[in-house]
Design a protein that fits this description.
The chain is of the alpha/beta class. The protein has a single domain (about 5-120), classed as NADH:ubiquinone oxidoreductase Nqo5 subunit (Beta Polymerase, domain 2, 2-Layer Sandwich). The chain has helices spanning about 5-15, 35-45, 105-115, and strands at about 20-25, 25-30, 50-60, 70-75, 80-90, 95, 120. A hairpin with a 4-residue loop joins strand 4 (about 70-75) and strand 5. It is elongated and about 55 Å long.
Amino acid sequence: MVSTPILDALHTALSANGARTAQSHGVFVCELESEYLFAAATQLKSVFAFDVFLDVTAVDWPNHALRFEVVYHFYSTTHKIRVRLKTRVSEATPHVPTLRPLYGSAGYMERECHDMYGIMFDGNDDLRPILLYEGFHGHPLRKDYPKQLEQPLVRYRF
């Protein structure tokens, strides 16, 4: 792992709650429990100057107890580095806290992730479909989504 003062400080701060840290393809990666996610994102923004929230997505691991890996990407314009936070949630309770209070753009990205995977972002009161239409059944990026499924027709509104 490449060592720099900022990466060493990130490792120390984020691993305090049992998170695992590593580097992957030049990106600092932190895997943590979902209850520590908001606190870690708060530290990234307020202490380490990660001022840009790039993305939130998920990975579906259908045969695992914690089926969904929710993945967040951040960037610091000060330090010119990226950070990836990852947490796992089960299919029965796919809940993580919203990051909207920290990054306003998170609202739209969380809506997309909710559309595609069914991840619930607790505290985001606007999880209306953003890519799919009202009445769409299922979450098309889940690996068990039937690709031949025909969706109900919806009248186009002008």
